[in-house]
Amino acid sequence: MTAAPFVLGAAMISIPAYAQDADVADDAGADTIVVTGSRIARPDLSSSVPVSVIGQEQIQQTGAANIQDVLNELPSVGQNISRTSSNFSTTGNGIATVNLRNLGSARTLVLVNGRRFVAGLPGTSVVDLNTIPTDLIKDVQVVTGGASAVYGSEAIAGVVNFILDDKFEGIRFHGQGTISDEGDAGRYLASLTAGTAFADGRGHIVVNGSYDRDNGLRSRNRGFSANDVPNRSSFAQQGLFSPDGSFAPGGATFTYGPGNVLKPYEGANIDGYDRNQDRYLGVPVERYLVTGLASYELSDNATLFFEGSYAKSKSRSSLEPQAVADTDLVNADGTPYAGIPITNPFIPTAIRDAMIAEGVTSLPFRRRSNDIFDRSNKNDRETWRAVAGLRGSFAEKFDYELYYGHGETKDYTRSGTIFGPQYVNALNAVAGPNGPVCSINVDANPNNNDAACVPINIFGFNTVSAAAADYVTRGGQLSEYRAKVKQDVFSASVSGEVFELPGGALSFATGFEYRRERSSEDFDDATNLGQTLGNLLTDTRGKYNVKEGFLEVVAPILSERPFFHYLGLEGAVRYSDYSTVGGVWSWKAGGEWAPIPDIRFRGIYSEATRAPNISELFSAQSETFPAIVDPCDQREGNGDGAPISVPGGSLSAACLAIPAIAAAANAGGFVYSTAQIQTINGFLGGNPNLREETAKTLTLGAVIQPRFVRGLSLTVDYYRIKLKNAIGIIGQQTSLDECMTGSGDALFCDNITRDATGRVTQVDAFNLNTGSFLVSGIDTQVKYSTTFGESGRFDLAAFWTHLLKQQQTSFPGGPTQKEVGQLDCYSCGRLGTGFRDKVNVSATVGWDNVSLNWRVNYLSSVVDDLTAAAPISTGAYWYHDAQLRFSLDDKKKYEFYLGVDNVFDKKPPRFGDTNPVTFPGAQTSATTYDLYGRLFYAGVDFRF
Length: 944
Fold this sequence. Notes:
Layout: E1 13-14, H1 21-26, E2 51-55, H2 56-62, H3 67-71, E3 108-112, E4 115-116, E5 137-144, H4 148-151, E6 158-164, E7 170-180, E8 187-198, E9 203-214, E10 217-218, E11 240-241, E12 250-257, E13 261-265, H5 268-271, E14 280-282, E15 285-299, E16 302-316, E17 323-325, E18 340-341, H6 349-358, E19 362-363, E20 365-368, E21 378-394, E22 398-416, H7 420-427, E23 429-432, E24 435-438, H8 466-472, E25 478-501, E26 504-523, H9 525-529, E27 540-561, E28 564-578, E29 582-596, E30 599-610, H10 614-618, E31 622-624, H11 653-656, H12 659-666, H13 674-678, E32 682-685, E33 693-704, E34 712-728, H14 732-740, H15 746-749, E35 752-754, E36 760-763, E37 765-766, E38 768-788, E39 792-809, E40 816-818, E41 837-847, E42 850-859, E43 863-864, E44 872-873, E45 877-887, E46 894-901, E47 935-943
Parallel strand pairs: 3-6, 32-37
Antiparallel strand pairs: 1-2, 2-5, 3-4, 5-6, 7-8, 7-47, 8-9, 9-15, 10-14, 11-20, 12-13, 15-16, 16-21, 17-20, 18-19, 21-22, 22-25, 23-24, 25-26, 26-27, 27-28, 28-29, 29-30, 30-33, 31-32, 33-34, 34-38, 35-36, 38-39, 39-40, 39-41, 41-42, 42-45, 43-44, 45-46, 46-47
C-alpha cells in the first residue's frame, strides 16, 4: 500500500451511541461486547468517547500488507516512524509506529486483544507494528483522548487496539504483488491462515503464518529526489584539499577530475558528491510472522485461552559513505588534529607548493570514504510474546479474567566504521626507504609504534589501498548495537452488574495489574569510548515495575422517558504505584444523553498520566558536538579572521558578569577561534529524577442517526488535550541564549560549562519535565449505506478532521510554537502537523460478486512560516486510490482483486535539500506526502 493517503472504507466510523438499539431490542439474547475505551461489556456499541473502527473488509480494500499503512491515513494519526522516515536513524531502521494526535508514539498505547504488547523500540513503550499480522486482524479500534484511567500509562493521546480473529474456521490463502509504474518499489505478500474447532466445539485454534517483503525505494529513482538540490556535498569521494582552509572554489583549493587529474576546485555542483544516489526514500523491510490463538472451555464458567506470536523483521538503511574532515579527528593526546602534515609523501607537489606559499605545515581536507567502508545499517529484529489466561463467569452476572503475558524483543544492528586513532596514524605518513611509512613507527618514541599501521592515500578517486582500508577499519570491524526488551504482565479483573437503576443495571469493572519492564541497549566498546568517527554513544540499562488498581462504573440514570430516551453517567479511576515515580492517579468522568433515539450527546473529561520510560530515566550520557554560538562571542560564531561584530564592551550584563569575559572584551574582544567552536561538546542523557506527565482531556460530541433516513449516521466531536510536565530536553543553544541574554535561570545556566578563559567548552541537554502541549480540533464522520436492485449495495463514508490548535512550549515562560500548518522540520527536530483540514471519502458500489471501491483523500494547503526565511506554500493535495474485487462464487471463497494507489500519480512538493523541512534524500517532507507515486497491485484471497 502506498504512503499516499486513502480512506478506510465504510466501517471507518466512530462507533455511534446505541447504534444497534433496534437490533438489541429485537434480540434479548444478543451477546455483550467490550468496546475499546471501556472495560465494561455492553449489549450495544454505545461509547461515550469517539471510537474509530477499521473492519477486516476495509483493511482488505486498501491492499496494505502492513497495518501501519492503514493507520497512517486516519486524520487522528500524526507523523510516525516508518520505512520512509528511518533511513537516517542510528538504530530502528524500518520500524513502524503509530502516533495519535501528533503527540508522539510514546503517548499512544497499543493493545492486542485489549492487552499490552511488548515494545519494539528499546527503552520505550512504543510497539513495532511490523509484529502485528495484518491478515489475522478482525478489526482495529482507535480511541483518541486520555484513556489512562482505563488502560494505564502511555494512553494520553489514545489507544489503538488490534482485535485478532480467534474464531476463524477453515483455511485461507492470501497472496499479493505490488509494483510501481516505474517498475520498482516491489512488494510481495504470502499468508496462510488455518482454524478449527475441536472437542465438540469446546476448543478452538487458529494459526497464521505470513511472509512479506518490501524492496524499498531509492532516492535516485524519483525525479523530485534524484539529485542533491540546490547543491551537492563539498565532501567529494576524490577529496578536497585547501591549504588556506577556505575550501572555496578557485586556485587555493584542489580536487581531482576524471583520470585522477589534479585540478582547481570549481564548486560543489561540479566537483561535489551527489548523496541522493546512495540514499533510500523508503527502506526495504522483510518480515516473517507466526501467530497462534487457542481456547478451551473447561466448563460453562471457565475457559482457558492462549496467544502466541513470533515476528522476525530485517531491514537496512542506505547512506552515502561517511564524510571525514581534518576537524573530525583528534590526536592521541586529545588535541584537535591540524591536518595532513606537509611531510606526507602522498601530497602532490602542486598542493605542497601551495602550502609553502600559505606558510602552513598542515593540510585541511574533506573526503568521503567510498573506498574504505560502508556505514549503512543492517538490522535484524525478533519479537516473541505469549499470553495464557483463564476467563469465565460466576453468580450469573459477573465475568472474570486472569492472565499472564511475557514478551521479548531483540535488536541487532551493525554497520562498518572508521576508527579515529588508526585514521590519524595512517594520515601521518612520512617517506621511508621503500616508500611511505607511518611516522609513529619511525619517530623517536618507541611506545607509540603500531606494526599494523599502513599509510593511507586519500588523494583522488579510489586511491586507498585494501591494506590501508583494512587498518583504519581494524580489519573490517563492525560498529554493533544490541538491544533487548522484556515485559511481564499479570492482570486480574472482574466485571458485571450490581443493582438496577431507573435506566438499567449499574455496571462495573475492577481489577489489579502488575507489570515489569526491562530494557538494555549495548553499543560496541569502540563506540562507547568515542574511538569511531561517529559520536560517543553509551549503553542504557534500566527497569521498573508498576502495581495498578482500577475501577470503572457505568450508571444508566433514565431510559425510555420523554426527552430521556437514555441518560447515563460513567466514571473510572486508576491508581498506579511505580517503582520510579511513586504513586499517580488517573480518572475520567462523563456521560451520555439521548433525548430521542435519533440523536445522542456525549462527553468525557479525563486526567491522564504517562510515567517516564526507561530511556528517559536511565539512558546514559551520549556525546554530541552541537553547532552553537555563545552570545558572548563578539565574532558571533564566525571563527578565525572574522571581524568583531559587536564593538568592545557591548555585551549583556550576564556576559560581563563573568570576569574573564569582561577582561577579554576590554582588552580587544572576547572571541572564539574556529577550533574552539568546533570542539564545544555536550552530553544528552536520561534523568532518574523525572516525574510523570499529566494531561487534561475533554471530548464533547453528538451522534445523529435519523430513523427517517435508514443507513445514515453522523458524528461530530470536539476534542482538547492539554499536556503538562512533558518530558523533553532544552536545546543547547536555547540554554546558552536564555542564560546569557534571557532569564538567567539555573534551569539553563546549569547546563553550561566554561573554562578559566570564560569560553564555553560544554553544553548539556538532559531530560526534564519542562514542556507542554495543547491540541484541539473537531472530528466529523458521516456514513451512509443502502441497497439497490436485487443484489446491489452502496456504501459511502467521509471522515473530516479540522485542527483548531496544535502547539507546544519547550519550557516555562518560553515561546509557544504553533504547529498548525507547519511541516516537519528534520534539522530542527520539530514534527509539524501540516494540515488544518484532512478529509477522507470512500465509496463502494457492489453487485453480485463484484465490487469497486474508490477512495479520495484531501490534505489542505500548507503555509509554513516557521522554518525558512520565506513562507513555504504547498497548496492542497488530493490523492485517489481504487480497487476492483470479484469472486467466482456467491460465498466469496475465491476472490481476485486489482488495485491502483495514487491513481493520478500525484508528486510531492519539492523543497530542495537545504530547506529545513526536507528529509535527507527526499527533497520533500517524507513523513507527510506520498513518495512512491502510482502503484499497481494484484492479489488472490482463497478460503477453503
